[in-house]
Amino acid sequence: MEVSYDPRIIEAKWQKEWEQAELFKVREDPNRQKYYLLEMFPYPSGKIHMGHVRNYAIGDVVARFKRMRGLNVLHPMGWDAFGLPAEAAAIQNNTHPAEWTCRNIEYMRSQLKKMGLSYDWSREIYTSDPNYYKWEQWLFIKLFERGLAYKKEAYVNWCKTCRTVLANEQAEGGTCWRCEGEVTQKLLPQWFLKITDYAEELLDCLEDLKGWPEKVILMQRNWIGKSRGAEILFPLDGSEGAIQVFTTRQDTLYGVTFVSLAPEHPSVEELVANSPERSKAMSFVQRIINQDRVTRTGEGQKKEGIFTGAYCRHPLTEELIPIYVANFVLPEYGTGAVMAVPAHDQRDFEFAKEYGLPIKVVITPEGEELQPDQLTQAYEGDGTMVNSGPFSGMPNREGMDKIVLKLESLSLGKGAVSYRLRDWGISRQRYWGAPIPIIYCPSCGPVPVPYQDLPVVLPAQVDLGANAGSALPECPDFVNTSCPACQQPARRETDTMDTFVESSWYFARYACPDYSAGMFDAPRVDYWLPVDQYIGGVEHAVMHLLYARFFTKVMRDLGLLKTAEPFTNLLTQGLVVKDGAKMSKSKGNVVDPDELIERYGADTSRLFSLFAAPPERDLEWSNRGVEGSYRFLNRVWRLVERYRYLFEREGDQEALSPAEAEDLKLARLTHATIKKVTEDIEKRFHFNTAISAIMELTNYLGQLPEEIEDRRPAEAVKDAITSMLLLLHPFAPHISEELWHRLGKEGFLLNQAWPGYDPQLLEVEETTLVIQVNGKVRGHITVSTDAKRAEVEAAALAQERVQVYTRGKKIERVIVVPGKLVSIVAR
Fold it and tell me: Which pTM was predicted?
């Protein structure tokens, strides 16, 4: 009796078999080529979503494929367990973040296992484990000792409701990503990591990342934002000091009519001190500081500013230059001060028009003369320098270098490189994070915790309460300690680290998660790193990937790693959308993976997510698509059951070569399918077309009669079915495993060799035939030598020139002379 396809029984069975056999457990083997496949680890929110299903299904296809290709595959999983969301959810549910997080991890782990993913769970890590963040604290101290970790006051995104610092991407639109409350700018002492020391190398190494999407390379390049130009000093009038600006257009120096400062510039308060409108000026400064950066500098945003009451002097002409504070100047660019040239910078032009400030033309295009009062917009192109003292008449590009030389001779400037990139602020005023291992002593200042005292463990007994803010400052047993240097009473740092810190090195810890004698076990980490294929959302294209690259270079310089880049190849998958929008609870368009797996099985869920769209594109949810994937797997099941008898009567037939045309066609289709699926996975990640090729082979097999021993060699069908199951395994591992064993095969499919193809079978011999219509030659057609008569007739009649002579006529007869001609009689 034929057994029907029941994914719930089959999938539970094989997941248990794989786990008992430790099938996915991997060890270093110097005799085998390694392959490290990694998907970005999830935040344990409590439930996986369809984005997870898609991401992890993509990774599992590659991991299983590489394993079957003979590589030693590391495919680990862990949890990005710290962070504000867990703390907030725990408070809301009146539980401890550790308990909340562990409960979520347990549930999400069970969900991932139900998907049949080939993870080596023996390497599982979670970042809230003291055994993990101990080494993060160890690394922080190393950075502190090298001057790469420091503390200073800085403006930060501050959520008044959550009472914590937010990263830029958590404060888009001026609202908190979690509570949607107002985000303001607040001056706070913060710990920073000196990523800017690695800006040039981070930029240069982008050229080596040939396996990364070009759009991600461009995003990182723009974020680092290297600019070549000059640093110029504008001496203050009537007081010591100068305003230092960075510009890429030093050729326009003679066109400066005012200087603009960012509201956050450290000199602002001092400059407005003697202004009769000091109060008004500081009120303006605070208002602009509190604005969202995107809104503040957005295209079309009104240019606002206020005069500080102070002046500086032009470094070459000594003219008095008024100093303004302007909303469009950001502290992140250059020095936070801009030399304003309204005639040649559009933002400066709009500001000058708004406040009636002078406009000086110092660059004119070839053959033209620009008049300041006739300009409707700034001229930002190249040309000839005018009104520029001794530099007038020079091409502006030549003048750039000469102006720098002049400034250097006066000690008022120099050639310089500036980066948009700023040092990474890692302080978070929350409880649920890795403690920063610093002790503050009244005598010794900030002192790192001794290495032997690590980890600094989060206290378990804390009163989180209902109010926002960190519980650590209110925990005396944690805060009060003694100075490691002088033994005087001291206090611990109560800020915790940004969760991006944990995700900046987790990929390396997977190589040796059980190692306790150091951060890494050198032989193991050197064997596995770098990651050969990294998979994750494009939303992490800048911050996470940039920080991970920075950490890798730091760890290399500390002698912990040999590699300079963490991820050789990167795939950024698209979103899962439904009804035209990204799936989210607020939109009410969420599909529950648990319900999907319960109804259709994990294989169907995986297959649909891989077949519906190429991985780099958004996947539009379709119930019909899910049902279609389920129907296909049922067809595969019935097909293999139908031909089981061929595998059960081993040896009762001679092994025949594909002598008949139909046998040759099946063999060719089988080998063409192997080639197509292999290349689509290995070269392009075009899983949708790979699955489509398997479907074509399956459909062809389904058209064959059930009893084939008198018509076609059984070996051709058996080879096709065996190949089909091997090719299907990375996409739908459970059903393929079950059918493999139902055919009497031994061993797990994952341990079988990936099928190869015979190139000679793919070389189809062709012949050219003459086409006659009513006895006259009207064209030629090239067909394969084994093409059927019906195929030849259809191809001949489809020829454009043939249709000209047969249009409107009745085809009475078509005569095919193999290898020679096709004769068409039309009346």
Answer: 0.88
